[in-house]
Amino acid sequence: MSEAALSAHSRVADALGDAPPVSDRPALAKLSADQINVFSALLDGFDDRCAILTWMQAVSIQTLGQLDDDWFPRLACDADVVSALLGAPWGPIEAVSPGRIREIRLGIAAKDLLPATQAANREFRWTASDYHTDEQGETPDPTKQRHPGMRPGMSLLDDAGAWTLSRLLDGFDEPEAFLIWGQYAVSATYSELESSTIEDAYFDLEVRARLTDKTSARARFFRESWAAEYLLPGFNKAAARLAARTTEVPETHATKPTTPRG
């Protein structure tokens, strides 16, 4: 089977099959594994622009908010990049070659994800706990942990971000529903999404019409762009703030964390 026929997850598994653990700190190992998953998803590509935005939301969590806020609209609104991520022409792009698809996807991995991963791991490395074992305990298995970096607070932020994005992309039945959603979104981003952003969208009648139009492809395109411009950067900022403040909780009651060593 050719390399192109293999999924990125399979290629990553082959490349890292005999790699030793990255750390004796399970939370850091869990974070690294999740970062590899979002990298693999990038290489596999996406079905539509909505899926790209959903992936970006996950990336903001797994990189602990270390990407620049303008990364989200810059990629999501670039026809050449979106075409490469979809593997098909998008917007004004009429054709996209396999070589160009591969070049752009790997370029994003090298220029964007890799530095953000380094920054996240650097920020996180000494706050992750070591564990010791005794008659009652065992070291947490990173592969059996659900939460990003073994932090339930990051899972809550991830869930809120995914729901908020999905709700926005679907559109709203009426302006009141958008305002209610907006209040939730401001709270869910720990107030990193400005309330003035919601206010401006509400009082701009053209924007309001597109937010409440659930049938038009043009309106959905607008909501996708609005999400990339405002909502995703808000959750990205929230991830950066929360990562250093949330508590590590292993999914086992028998382990005993030790004080992180510097």
Report on the architecture of this protein.
With 262 residues, this protein is mainly alpha-helical. It is 61% helix and 2% strand. The chain contains eleven helices and two strands. It has helices at 8-16, 26-44, 49-62, 71-76, 79-86, 98-124, 152-170, 175-188, 195-203, 205-211, 217-243, and strands at 131-132, 256-257. The protein has a two-stranded antiparallel ribbon. Mean pLDDT is 87; it is low at 1-5 and 253-262.
Give the integer mean of the pLDDT values: 87
Secondary-structure class:
mainly alpha
Name the shape in a single word.
Answer: globular
* Widest sheet: strand ordering: 1-2
Specify the biggest β-sheet: 2 strands, antiparallel
Radius of gyration: 20 Å
- Count of DSSP E strands? 2
**What are the secondary-structure elements, in order, as H or E?**
HHHHHHEHHHHHE
The unreliable regions are: 1-5, 253-262
Question: Main traits of this protein?
Answer:
2 strands; single chain; 61% helix; 11 helices; mainly alpha; disordered N terminus; two-stranded antiparallel sheet; 262 residues
Describe the secondary structure blueprint for this structure:
Elements: H1 8-16, H2 26-44, H3 49-62, H4 71-76, H5 79-86, H6 98-124, E1 131-132, H7 152-170, H8 175-188, H9 195-203, H10 205-211, H11 217-243, E2 256-257
Antiparallel strand pairs: 1-2
Helix pairs in contact: 2-3, 2-6, 3-7, 3-11, 5-6, 7-8, 7-11, 8-9, 10-11
